[in-house]
Amino acid sequence: MLEELFKEEHRIFRESLREFIEKEVNPNKEKWEKDGIIPKSVWRKMGELGFLGFWYPEEYGGFNADFLYSVIFTEELCKSKVSGFEVGFLVHNEMATPPILHIGNEEQKKRWLPKAARGEMVFALGITEPFAGSDVAGIRTTAVRDGDYYIINGTKTFITNGASCDAVTLAVKTNPKAVPPHAGISLIVVEKGTPGFSVSRKLEKLGNHASDTAELVFEDCKVPKDNLLGEEGTGFYAIMQNFQRERLIAAIGNVVGAQKMIDMTIEYVKERVAFGKPLSKFQVIRHRIVDMLTEIEMSRRFVYHCVELFMKGRDATKEISMAKFYTAEMLNRVAYNCLQLFGGYGYMKEYPISQAYADARMATIAGGTSEIMKEIVAKLIGL
After folding, report:
1. What distance separates the 2 farthest-apart alpha carbons in the chain?
2. Which of 69, 122, 377, 383 has its CA 20 to 30 A from that of 90?
3. 36 with 151, same domain?
4. CB contact at 8 A, 283 and 291
5. Do 93 and 173 fall within a single domain?
6. First CA to last CA across the chain, in angstroms?
7. In this predicted structure, what is the pLDDT of residue 131?
8. Is residue 245 domain-shared with residue 370, that is, in the same domain?
9. How many domains are contained in the chain?
């Protein structure tokens, strides 16, 4: 079982991160959610304590940590009381910077990864566009070679860390006429302050309020050719490769989110009295909670199985796609039922279950919709 793989160093990392969140994060809940952004000082503190880039090789600022550290990182961040606190850090650490390590050259790795690990640079991942989300091959943002530069034009939307990022790992079409279309996609790093790169607007979301999300615009944005990651036309494959890590991280977070909601619900039904006795004494409520707990635990076991496959280097596309959509749907079922058990109080914003309900809605959409996940699985089984 996965738990048997955790060692003393993993336990220390978990406890240190948990303590940091309790002391440095949770007390700032109201302010950060109102501001809709995590202060840069927090990123630097996270970096100083070794909570960022830990899985990078030592020469790039990490300590070559195994994937279990990413599991712990995800689980503890998702336990935070701040709505959306985990989102930006997971994108930075597990989604936006991996392509730099995987397909970047030595100069690029030394240029960006140590700063990312220290929290001095915040990274975003720029894939989604107004007319292309899960259909990555359908992106329209172009990067045309002009001597020693690329001229980028296009718009990205729903970009996590978009307003606060210092750089974005950007998916572009370097060959719009490529057949098939995905063969023309490349990845290029665009740094903040590059002429022609701007944040057109910060987006207001249903949930995950402390995580900033923005629309990015590129108008004749002139980026050095040395910022291209890998070769032209290899971006789609790098994105697909990293999707497995991203979706597995999402599944881990979904399980934690569901557990967090059921925990607060169990506490509530023990205290809330109706018709002369606590809600927990009504069989229908006890059974509903047991049903949810069972589904959460089954989900956790399957997700941990996927983690083991991933760590062994196996192609777990089918299993991870299943885990991503199933845990996302499970999270939303738990959110619905838990809020229902809170009754009118669950509808009040002052109750954490209300915010958790809103936060959960993103799970079936971000990182590939449930429908897309099912299509992937269907193709892999020959349908």
Report:
1. 79
2. 377
3. no
4. no
5. no
6. 32
7. 85
8. yes
9. 3
Could you write out the DSSP letters of every residue in 113-155? HHHHHHTSS-EEEE--BTTBSS-GGG---EEEEETTEEEEEEE
How many C-alpha atoms does 267 have within 13 Å on its Cβ side? 9
**Residues in contact with 298: Cβ distance below 8 Å, sequence separation at least 6, in sequence order:** none
| Regions of the chain with pLDDT less than 70 | none
d(CA 92, CA 99): 11
pLDDT at 2: 77
210 and 265: one domain?
no
From CA 363, how far away is CA 357, in angstroms rounded?
Answer: 11
Task: Kindly list the catalytic residues.
Answer: 246
Q: Tell the burial category of 259 from Cβ atoms under 10 Å away from its Cβ (0-12, 13-18, 19+).
A: buried
Q: Which residues pair with 151 in a beta bridge?
A: 144, 222
Report how far residue 262's alpha carbon sits from residue 269's, in angstroms, rounded to the nearest whole number: 10
pLDDT tens, residue by residue, 45-98: 999 999 999 999 999 999 999 999 999 999 999 999 999 999 999 999 999 999
CA 7 – CA 272 distance, rounded (Å)? 40
Structure tokens at 259: 């557990």
DSSP state of 316: -
Count the Cβ atoms, other than its own, within 10 Å of residue 64: 12
User: What does pTM read for this prediction?
Assistant: 0.95
Peptide bond into 39 cis (omega under 30): no
Give the integer Cα–Cα distance in Å for 65 and 62: 8
Whether 184 and 200 share a structural domain: yes
